[in-house]
Amino acid sequence: MNRIIVTGGAGFIGSNFVHHLVAHTDAHVTVLDKLTYASTEASLAGLPEERVQLVVGDITDASLVDRLVAGADAVVHYAAESHNDNSLEDPAPFVQTNLVGTFTLLEAVRKHDVRFHHVSTDEVYGDLDLDDPKRFTEDTPYQPSSPYSASKAGSDHLVRAWVRSFGVRATISNCSNNYGPWQHVEKFIPRQITEVLDGRRPRVYGDGLNVRDWIHTEDHSSAVLAILERGRTGETYLIGADGEKSNLEVVRAILRTFGRPEDDIEWVTDRAGHDRRYAIESGKLRSELGWEPRFQDFDEGLAETIDWYRAHEDWWRPLKAETEAKYAAKGH
Ligand code: NAD
Ligand code: TDX
Fold this sequence. Notes:
Blueprint: E1 3-7, H1 12-24, E2 28-33, E3 52-56, H2 62-70, E4 74-77, H3 84-89, H4 92-112, E5 115-121, H5 147-166, E6 170-175, E7 178-179, H6 188-197, E8 203-205, E9 211-213, E10 215-216, H7 217-230, E11 236-239, E12 244-246, H8 247-257, E13 266-268, H9 283-289, H10 298-311, H11 313-329
Parallel strand pairs: 1-2, 1-4, 2-3, 4-5, 5-6, 6-11, 7-10, 8-13
Antiparallel strand pairs: 9-12
Helix pairs in contact: 1-7, 2-4, 4-5, 6-8
This protein binds nicotinamide-adenine-dinucleotide (NAD) and thymidine-5'-diphospho-beta-D-xylose.
């Protein structure tokens, strides 16, 4: 697998994966990215030009996708509309990119018999109660809540149908919530870090008891590479690092780091249909492929991430005012 297309490779997790590929393989990478509001070419800066090429384009553009896939050994598919709150405002681009875009890629890999890895989310399984001892496994039934998670669930189903009906060589991974550098300030952790850096209070939805299962984006990348290289085609692997935390715990950890009182919080309108808890059981990935997360200590990963946002204000500052204006209009 020397020629790899990474869709969405200028986004938060996709760009981390491109850096990971360059550091850990000999692959030549073509990033196919539309450069939406969520992307940053800066996240690809410093990569060797002879190894990484950026093609600015849309994954729903069938002729472009066909041309690129014809010359590739594998496609790793990250491109998506990714923010739940946006999907509640306007679901249309979620259906277009996440469903039609995945369909377009599947038709191309089917035609050219190219290996495909589909990057998905644990949100396809809906949510768990706070006191439920269960975690999501590869066998948990699909029950998505938001237009975002429904569009990702639909894309997973498309991949499985193309595997079963057309013999496409595909794998799927469903990962929990990622944190780390280059995450857009619309997302929970970077939003709260940059609010505190701006001298404002963190903004917590509802009662703050919703639980997310945090994983560092670097660990997500190493898991996807393990699946790409050694995963069994047709299989699904859940990716998680045992990082369950309530939103309140995360916000308090951020406030502590800045030496601010732990109750210095702005309680804001809850998200419609807000999923209560996600939790991943990643035993299959660990036992079959020998994968282990590098960031075992959330507080350490969070501290590194806070340092990164402190040092990269030039990157996030231009995104901040527009993001906050959108949230303010919704009471968030
Ligand atoms: P992101 O929003 O930061 O990046 C998405 C990238 O896709 C951007 O660079 C954007 O320009 C590109 N893109 C969007 N529409 C496109 C189109 N039509 N054609 C080409 N490119 C397009 O998202 P992210 O948080 O990095 O998530 C990446 C993937 O990982 C998504 O598939 C998401 O569902 C999945 N995922 C994310 C998380 C998380 O915590 N963020 C967790 C599990 C899975
Ligand atoms: O300001 C906020 N205050 C707040 O309390 C924001 C932006 C969020 N929240 C809450 C909502 C969630 O319970 O924090 C939690 C995390 O919110 P998001 O960062 O929006 O993530 P989430 O909705 O959990 O989805 C994320 O993880 C799964 C990614 O955005 C998805 O792309 C991925 O599939």
